[in-house]
Specification:
Blueprint lengths: L2 E6 L8 E5 L15 E5 L4 E9 L9 E5 H7 L6 E6 L6 H8 L6 H12 L5 H13 L3 H13 L12 E5 L9 H11 L3 E5 L9 H6 L8 H11 L1 E5 L7 H13 L4 H14 L4 E8 L8 H18 L2 E8 L7 E2 L1 H12 L7 H15 L10 H10 L2 H13 L11 E6 L4 E6 L1 H10 L9 E4 L6 E2 L4 E7 L2 H13 L3 E4 L1 H8 L1
Helix pairs in contact: 2-4, 3-5, 4-9, 5-10, 6-13, 6-14, 6-15, 8-15, 10-11, 13-14, 16-17
């Protein structure tokens, strides 16, 4: 029996949800207990959706099916169109997940079928979680390669003119580390192709896409992306809109609540997107620090070798740069505050954060050395020349205009509070995780003006009552949350000046 579609104005994120009336004409009420998921067909296309039952018949009539926004969009049928429904059968690839759970090694075709069904939204979050947890238990190097290639093969693929297409990626975990927005215009000004797709924040106060959106439109189509790159040599856009390695976005959405972030899954995530984006050369920023994702040199070496192993198989030249992840980079933590840091560096302002400038130059220099015309070790000098001359700022402005400059001035949140030292001392350490957490409590990234302005760094001397950082927010509830939380644990550890002198001796 045919059912008419009613669009439910509810964003259920990546999950397809279908809503049936409790007296639906297509199914007997007792049938609702037999299954939890529906297959919805419109003839040409079908989707799998979780089933919810509605007892308010003014919302969904007996001869209607309600589809939430993701399901409505993916089915591609106008409201009022008709569909048929049937109980959704479990994907056959779930047998491979069960095999992985009990300790079996999966082959290429088994992993491909799992990824294909995940991208087809045939898995529930619980089933995806089962696959991820099984992989976190153990993943052979062959399985890692199969997973990375399978993730890269679904979705769109970019191809570019010329033999060298460069990219830069940071594994994350360091607040304010917005080097990408400085590296891209430097590299583009030199003339290399750098089509940069970036993520939005999931657990951080800002992703590169969130920060770039302060300055320009980032939700470009593939055709628009190509046009910007052809005009400017580079772009800075949100990767979710161009559908590169869509399996990665789905897997990440389940990984993060479970706090799953194994080396193998991280490498598969990053390298699948670089392969789909058409990159030939990749520089990876791998911060190491006590509160970073990677805590010590041994772990960094293992992760570097894993990146090199997969990159070799994918024919991508990879250069892994281990950097200092002991504290936030720059001063701003949050979209607008980070964008202000980026533009200050590009404009060569005297007050621009020196650490953000220097790290960006180091990374840009390594990227530039993918150019055969630059002698070994000459990348840093060329990057500095492009930044100091204003060429990088001009390049950034071309990219912003080509993508669509954001209207209006970007202003930090008007509600502010200084978080001060409770004793004299020297800043011994800064907890990156806590700083990011406090910035999110202040409202970042959804409130673009929210976040933290860092006023002290490791090694700085402070007196009791002197500000360590400033909280910015636009909403009173978020502001109070952040201030109260900072009062409990502010993320700074102070050492006695006398102890510091003794350690130096």
């Amino acid at each position: 029996m045919m059912l008419r579609i009613r669009r439910i104005p509810l964003d259920t994120l990546r999950e397809n949800v279908a809503v049936l009336a409790s007296n639906c004409v297509a199914l007997r009420p007792e049938a609702f207990q037999a299954f939890k998921r529906l297959e919805v067909h419109n003839g040409a296309r079908s989707i799998i959706a979780s089933l919810d039952i509605c007892h308010d018949h003014s919302m969904v009539a007996p001869d209607e099916i309600g589809l939430t926004e993701p399901a409505f969009r993916r089915l591609g049928v106008q409201e009022g169109g008709t569909v048929t429904i049937a109980p959704a059968r479990s994907p056959q690839s779930l047998e491979h997940v069960r095999a992985k759970i009990v300790g079996e090694t999966l082959d290429k075709h088994q992993i491909e079928s799992i990824i294909h069904d995940i991208v087809g939204y045939r898995y529930s979050d619980m089933e995806i979680a089962a696959f991820l947890v099984a992989c976190a238990g153990f993943l052979t190097t062959d399985e890692l390669l199969h997973l990375t290639f399978a993730m890269a093969d679904v979705g769109n693929h970019m191809t570019w003119n010329g033999p060298v297409v460069v990219d830069k990626h940071c594994i994350g975990g360091i607040p304010g580390n917005r080097t990408t927005m400085i590296v891209v215009p430097i590299v583009a000004a030199h003339g290399l192709t750098i089509p940069k797709t970036s993520s939005r924040a999931i657990t951080s106060p800002a992703g590169t896409a969130d920060t770039m959106e302060v300055l320009a439109r980032v939700d470009l189509s593939m055709d628009e992306m190509r046009s910007v790159v052809e005009e400017c040599n580079g772009c800075l856009i949100w990767g979710g809109h161009v559908n590169l390695s869509p399996a990665d976005d789905i897997l990440i959405g389940v990984e993060r609540p479970l706090n799953l972030d194994t080396r193998e899954q991280m490498v598969a995530s990053i390298m699948s997107k670089k392969k789909a984006a058409g990159s030939t050369h990749l520089v990876i920023d791998l911060p190491v620090g006590p509160s970073a994702k990677v805590r010590d040199a041994t772990e960094a070496m293992r992760l570097r070798k894993l990146f090199e192993f997969v990159a070799d198989a994918m024919k991508i030249h990879v250069d892994v740069l281990v950097t200092d992840g002991a504290q936030p980079i720059g001063r701003g933590v949050g979209p607008i505050l980070e964008a202000q840091d980026v533009m200050a560096v590009l404009a060569n302002d005297q007050g621009a954060p020196a650490d953000l400038r220097e790290k960006s130059l180091q990374l840009a220099g390594r990227v530039l050395e993918a150019d055969p015309a630059i002698r070994g070790g000459g990348g840093y000098g060329r990057a500095r020349q492009l930044l100091d001359s204003g060429a990088a700022l001009a390049s950034m402005n071309r990219i912003i205009d080509a993508q669509g400059r954001a209207p209006g001035a970007a202003v930090a949140g008007p509600l502010t509070a200084d978080i001060c030292a409770d004793a004299d001392g020297i800043v011994a350490s800064i907890d990156c995780f806590r700083i990011a957490q406090l910035a999110r409590l202040a409202g970042a990234p959804l409130d673009r003006g929210a976040g933290l302005m860092m006023l002290k760094r490791v090694g700085d001397r402070v007196e009791a009552g002197e500000p360590l950082y400033r909280i910015h927010s636009a909403g009173e509830s978020h502001f109070n949350f952040a201030v109260d939380a900072a009062g409990e644990v502010n993320g700074f550890a102070l050492a006695s000046p006398s102890l510091q002198r003794g350690a130096a001796q």
